[in-house]
Amino acid sequence: MAAGSARKLRRYQEMRDFGRTAEPAGGAAGGPAGHRFVVQRHRARRLHYDFRLELDGVLVSWAVPKGPTLDPKARRLAVHVEDHPIEYAEFEGVIPRGEYGGGDVIVWDRGVWQPVDEDPAKAIEDGTLHFDLDGEKLAGRFVLVRTNRGEKDQWFLLHKEDEHAEAGWDAALWHGDRPAAQAEETVGFTAATDDELAALDDLGAKGKWSVAGRELSLTNLDKILFPAAGDGEPVTKRDLIRYYVTAGPAMLPYLAGRPLNTHRFPQGVTETGFWQKEVPKHAPEWLTTWRNERAEAGESQRYVVADSVATLAWLANYGALELHAWTSRADDVDHPTWVLFDIDPGPETSFAEVLELARLHRTTLEHLGLTGRPKVTGQRGIQVWVPIAPHCTFEQTRAWAETVSKTIGRVLPDLVSWAWSKDKRRGRARLDYTQNVLNKTLVAPYSVRPRPGAPVSVPLEWAELDDDGLTPDRWTVRDVPKRLAGHSDPFAALLGVEQKLPGL
After folding, report:
1. Closest among 78, 95, 93, 28 to 58, alpha carbons compared
2. Exposure string for 46-67, b = 16+ CB within 10 A, e = fewer
3. What HEC string does 315-360 produce?
4. How does DSSP classify residue 196?
C-alpha cells in the first residue's frame, strides 16, 4: 500500500478493532487506479447509506442518512467521514455490536464515476465536486457541496437536472424486522396519474376509485367542504381528494413514518370539527398504522401513518381535512426530529409584525449556526421548523425552544406577550414554544386549513418573507400544485438534516 494511502487510512484504522470486525484493514496491495463508486446500505444505530468514490488510492466517503436520490429538487445531507480502503468496496457483512458502526452492511449500488472537475481532490478540498455516475441504480450528473466544516463536515448531495433525473425518486422503504438482504422495498412518493385523476373526475357522487394500486370507496364527492373565499369557488370533497393526491409527493416526506393526528370536518368547515387520532374500525387493511403500547384506558391506541397518496385520499374521503404529524418518528417516539416555533398573532398583531418576528428567528438561527425554514400557516401566522438529530428528549427541546423564544421576545417586547390566553395578551403575539411535547403537533407542511377557500400551510424560503405580496393564506388547494410544479419545496433542504442543538 502506498505511503499516501496509508496516511489517509490512519483514522479509519484507529477507529476499529480488526480482531473483532471483519472489515478490511486496508493493508492489501492496491490494483490499478480506477474510478469505482459504491453505495453501501448500513443498518447501524440508524439506517443510512455510505457513499464512496475511489480517489488517490482510497474510498473518499460520505454518510447519507436518507440515501442518494435522482430527484433534482431534493438535497440530501451527506456527512464527510474518514477515508476507507479500496477493499471496502466489496465489503458486506455484520459489524459486531459495540464496534464503531455496529450493524449490517450490504452493497446497494456500484459502478464507475467520472469527475467533471479537472482536479477532483482539490474540488473536494474547496467544497464543491461535480461528477457523473454510471451505476446499477444511480446515473447522471451529481454534485457534492460543503455546507458546514464544523464538528461534522456537512455537505449536500444533489442530482442535476438531466436525462437521468426523476422527480420524487427515493431510495427505499425500510423494513427493520426483515433480514438485511430483504429489508428494502423500493418506493417513491408518486402522485396520482392523469388517468387516475380523469377517473376521479368521471365518478358520480360516489363510487369505487383506484389510486396508487389501492381501491377506495368514495362518497359524497360533490359535497362542499369549504365555502368560497372572496371571488373564488367553493371546494368540494372531490377537489380536496384531487389536491392531496396531486401535492402528496411534496407532503408525504413530512408524514411518513410518524403517527398522525387528524382534524376532521365531515360536514365541512362551516360546522364544528373535532380531533381524531384513533384509527376507525372500518379502515382498510392496507392502511399503515402504529400502535401506542403505552396508551392507557381511554387513550388512542392505533394511529394512521400516512405513507402514500392512497392514504391521503382515504383521509380526505373520511373528512380528515387538516393533518398534524408527530415531531418524533414511530420507531423512536421519545426523541423529536423537529423543533418548532409558532408565531401566533394576537388580535392587534399586523402581518408586517409577524414578518418582523419571523426575520428575528432567521437571524437567531444563523447566529446559532442552525438551518431552519419558515412556513405560512394558512391562517394568520408563521411557523419556523428546525430539523434536529433524534438525541434530545422533549423536555430538553422544549426548554431550549423556550430560551430561544424569550431571547427573541426581548428584542421586540412591545409585540410579544407570554400570557397563555389571548384575552390576557392585550392584542399582542405569542411566541409559542409549547408544542415541543410528545403528541403535540403543528399543522403539517402542505396541509389544508379549515377556512373558506381551503388555504394551505406552505413552506417558504427565507427570502420570500420580503415578498410584498406574501400573506399567511396566500395559497389554496387551487394553486399549490402550480407552485410546486415551478418551485422546489423549500423544506426539502431540511430532510435528513440532523443538527445538534447548542448546549444539548
Report:
1. 28
2. ebbbbbbbbbebbbbbbbbbbb
3. HHHCCEEEEEECCEECCEEEEECEEEEEEECCCCCCHHHHHHHHHH
4. H
C-beta separation of 325 from 272 below 8 A: no
Question: Which tens digits make up the pLDDT trace of 283-335?
Answer: 999 999 999 988 888 899 999 999 899 999 999 999 999 999 999 998 889 99
Q: Rounded CA gap, 352 and 382, in Å?
A: 11
- Return the CA Rg of the chain: 24
* DSSP H or E stretch at residue 405: helix 394-411
Number of other residues whose CB lies within 10 A of the CB of residue 366: 12
Helix (H) or strand (E) holding 408: helix 394-411
CB of 55 closer than 8 Å to CB of 125? no
Grid coordinates of 346: 394576537
108: amino acid identity, one letter: W
Give Cβ neighbours of residue 413 (< 8 Å, ≥ 6 apart).
none
Tell me the residue ranges of DSSP E strands in 187-276. Answer: 207-211, 214-218, 224-226, 235-236, 260-264, 274-276
At 155 the pLDDT is 93
